[in-house]
Amino acid sequence: MRVIVAALASGVVLFFFIVLALRGDQAPGQPLIAYLAAGVGVTAFAASVVVPQVMTAPARQSIAAGDAPNGAAVSKEVGDVGRLGALYQTRVIVAGALLEGAAFFNTIAYLFEGQMLTVVVTIALILSIVGQFPTVGRVENWVVSQMEIIEQSRSRLQ
After folding, report:
1. Residue 139: which of 101, 100, 84, 93 has the closest Cα?
2. Contacts of 39 (CB under 8 A, 6+ apart)
3. Which of 21, 71, 86, 146 is most deeply buried (CB count within 10 A of its CB)?
4. d(CA 42, CA 20)
5. Is 109 exposed, middle or buried (0-12, 13-18, 19+ CB in 10 A)?
């Protein structure tokens, strides 16, 4: 997961620096695309928070029922923790991809129009991608909290 998050962030960062070099000292243009790109950035940020949450509930129910989430090919030997690990990875990838697409759009908007708004939004989106970086503690805390919810769900079914 760390490699995936690093790749998502580094691709945007590299392209961002290339665009900054290409754009140089050109005068800014009309901010038509910039406003659209900034709006997409804000929407993508919100989606990167909401979409993984929406994905989690049905996947957690599948795990509680003893199935792999979303029909994923997860072996029975890994148990619930392994299934939750696969779900966490999917959440990180989805959130990072949403942020990455918006960051690229804002970078392209900067290339065309040179508006600082898109630079600020791009930097914020890059930091949001980096914020997805999975640490051991973050993954453990998330898995433990999800296991508690699964256990509560299973006890209600019995």
Report:
1. 84
2. none
3. 146
4. 22
5. buried
The domain tally of the chain equals: 1
For residue 7, the number of C-alpha atoms closer than 13 Å in the C-beta half-sphere is: 7
Residue 12 CB partners (closer than 8 Å, separation 6+): 100, 103, 104, 107, 122, 125, 126, 129
Range of the domain at 150: 2-157
Spatial distance between the Cα atoms of 67 and 69, rounded to a whole number of angstroms:
6
Task: Report the Cα 59 to chain-centroid distance in Å.
Answer: 17
What is the b/e burial string over 64-96, where b = at least 16 CB atoms within 10 angstroms of the residue's CB?
A: beeebbeeeebeeeeebebbbbbbbebbbbbbb
- Torsion angle, alpha carbons of 22, 25, 30, 35, to 10: 60
Taking only the tens place, the pLDDT of each residue in 23-57 is: 988 889 899 999 999 999 999 999 999 999 999 99
Q: How confident is the model at residue 16 (pLDDT cuts 50, 70, 90)?
A: very high
Residue 34 one-letter amino acid: A
Sorting pLDDT into bands at 50, 70 and 90, what band is 75?
Answer: low
Running DSSP on this structure, what letter comes out for residue 68?
P
